[in-house]
Amino acid sequence: MAYATINELKMRLGQDYAGLYGNDEAGSAAAQADLDAAAAEIDAAAGCRYETPVVSSRAEALLRDWNLTLCEERARVRCAGDTIPDKLKTRVAHVRESLAKTVGGELVLPGATESLRGQGFATVACDGPVFTRETMKGY
Fold this sequence. Notes:
By secondary structure, the chain is mostly helical. It has one domain (about 5-105). It contains 5 helices and no strands. The chain has helices at about 5-15, 15-20, 25-45, 60-80, 85-105. The termini are far apart.
């Protein structure tokens, strides 16, 4: 599930959208695929700590921005001859740094539900010890 919509991607890219995706159904499908792949990258990192997809109205704007930034990178890399602007490279690096901080617990997604994976414990029920100092005396 993407955290942003195709319309939000069109607004982010402005006039570049048509050049990157076109204005047909195939272009919309490619744009949705890029949004979904970018969201999967976010979920892969956030899933180390939170239930995914992250459903939090307080983190919604941040997740949308991350989704659009990573999607924009995908769109520009896919097009032959297109270069990634330095500003976009900086934004993408910041997003990936923030995702790494999320995994490490340095950055908190407000309102997100913490995952219980890996936080469990196990108990073992068994008989008492057979070989003790007392039972092994003389051996």
